[in-house]
């Protein structure tokens, strides 16, 4: 340790130590924040799953993945339901059109054929 001769040397050393202390506190705070984020249940689970499956960790997050899976399931169910509804609507339309054609054709058949007027000849 150096021998301190002037008060300015003491003040300079205090200032240097204070800057060093602030830098170390900042690093400690960053480390603590990172540790808290890593230990959140969703992040912890995602990292362990990635570690287990040897896949690269995704930035989307566990919640986002679950929402995507739920949306995919829901859309599959809704499209299946909508497909059934469309099929039944189309079938009902075809049935209705065929009934109309049948009634239209049956009316033409039941009509008596026209007889020609003898006066025209």
Question: What this model shows, in words?
Answer:
Helix content is 78%, strand content 0%. The longest helix has 49 residues, at 62-110. With 121 residues, the chain is an all-alpha fold. It is rod-shaped and about 145 Å long. The chain has helices at 7-38, 41-53, 62-110.
What is shown here, in short?
With 121 residues, the protein is mainly α. Helices cover 78% and strands 0% of the residues.
Radius of gyration, taken over Cα atoms and rounded to an integer in Å = 42 Å
Sketch the topology as an H/E string, one letter per element. Answer: HHH
The overall strand count is 0
User: Main beta sheet: strand number and arrangement?
Assistant: none
The average pLDDT is 77
User: What structural class do helix, strand and pairing data support?
Assistant: mainly alpha
Which helices and strands, and how do they pair?
Layout: H1 7-38, H2 41-53, H3 62-110
Index terms:
single chain; 121 residues; mainly alpha; rod-shaped
């Amino acid at each position: 340790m150096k021998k301190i001769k002037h008060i300015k040397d003491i003040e300079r050393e205090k200032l240097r130590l204070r800057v060093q202390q602030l830098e170390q506190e900042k690093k400690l705070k960053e480390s603590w924040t990172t540790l808290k984020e890593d230990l959140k249940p969703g992040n912890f689970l995602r990292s362990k799953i990635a570690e287990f499956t040897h896949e690269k960790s995704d930035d989307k997050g566990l919640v986002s993945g679950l929402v995507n899976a739920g949306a995919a399931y829901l859309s599959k169910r809704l499209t299946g339901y909508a497909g059934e509804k469309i099929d039944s609507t189309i079938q009902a339309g075809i049935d209705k059109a065929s009934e109309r054609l049948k009634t239209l054709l049956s009316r033409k058949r039941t009509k008596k054929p026209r007889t020609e007027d003898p006066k025209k000849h």
